[in-house]
Amino acid sequence: MTSARAKKSPAPIIGRTAIVAGNGSLPVAVAASLRKQGANPLIVTIKGEADPELYAGEHAEISIVELGGLMRILKAENITNVVLAGGIRHRPEFSAALKPGNGNLVALYRFMRAFRLGDDGLLRAVISTIESYGFRVLGAHEVVPDILAPAPGCITRKKPTQEGRENIEAARKAATLIGSLDIGQAAIAVGRRVVALEGVEGTDAMLQRVADLREAKRINRKGGVLVKCAKPQQEVRADLPAIGVSTVENAVKAGLSGIAVEAGRTLILSYEDTLAAANAAGLFIQTFEQEKS
Fold first, then answer.
1. 57, 81, 117, 290: which could form a disulfide with 17 (CB 3.0–4.6 Å)?
2. Per-residue pLDDT, 178
3. Residue numbers of the domain that contains 198
4. Running DSSP on this structure, what letter comes out for residue 227?
């Protein structure tokens, strides 16, 4: 095992790029990669979500429902490409979307109608709306290709045992099923049995639930595996599943033995730091390829 991997050079991006930044470290990584390429990205921070670091450079701020304001900003700054990066902790209220200036009636109709379709439907509607104004929506992995989980294999010193592999398979099937229902992207299996499914609360909250179950002695068996994979119908330009240092730390608190993620369709944030944290904790990180349906 080695943490080294072939460096992929991002394809040249023509025109100026805007990063619509939610929470987490992904928008920071995308901005850093574009600047290394000599670009001058515009950071459009989502109020109450974006990392304070993103306010240091050239930026604009919007609320999540300001579709009209976003389009005006993109046009005024001569933006060609848009990257949607980072998570959203709070879903907006319908009443906020109806305030003057938050978008034209067609955009608002698409946006509000998408609320009934779950997270994936909402993302597709937002992307469709942005593209209808003539902008090109890119996935974060198109700007930072090294952020994608590498080809199937174990990327840490520790490798999964036979039970670990069986836990991976059990959790993978469960995560794929809830993904097809647009519920979540992750599951945890302990002792070859699925003990937790990811809901709207997210992966870290699910890991905390497992830690609480262990403390309450509802889960007695040691070990277990967190599995994350893209939804079968995943819009890959936004909301790909991701892990990072905090995922490793929370997996340790939950008493797990390892983490498994879908190769090529999961983001590993702060790759080297995440591997170092897993190696220091004695956890494995395994990448896998989804079965063809």
1. 81
2. 95
3. 148-288
4. E
pTM, entire model: 0.84
Burial class (CB in 10 A: 0-12, 13-18, 19+), 29: buried
Distances in whole angstroms, Cα of residue 281 to Cα of each of 24, 215, 257: 23, 20, 9
Q: Where are the alpha helices (DSSP H) in 14-55?
A: 26-36
Q: Average pLDDT, whole number, for the chain?
A: 86
Closest CA to 231 of 190, 167, 178: 178
Q: What is the pLDDT of residues 88-131, one digit of tens each?
A: 776 655 555 555 554 554 555 555 555 555 566 677 778 888 89
- Asked whether residue 131 falls in the same domain as residue 224, the answer is no
53, 134: one domain: yes
Task: Choose among 238, 227, 231, 243: nearest CA to 186.
Answer: 227
Residue pLDDT, tens place only, 247-276: 999 999 999 999 999 999 999 998 999 999
Q: Tell me the two tokens of residue 53.
A: 């670091």
**DSSP secondary structure of 108-176:** HHHHHHHGGGHHHHHHHHHHHHHHHTTPEEE-HHHH-GGGB--SSEE-SSS---HHHHHHHHHHHHHHH
- Give a yes or no: residue 4 inside a domain: no
CB 192 within 8 A of CB 81: no
Report the distance separating Cα 293 and Cα 115, nearest Å: 28
Could you give the number of structural domains in the chain? 2
Alpha-carbon distance of 262 to 234, in angstroms, equals 13
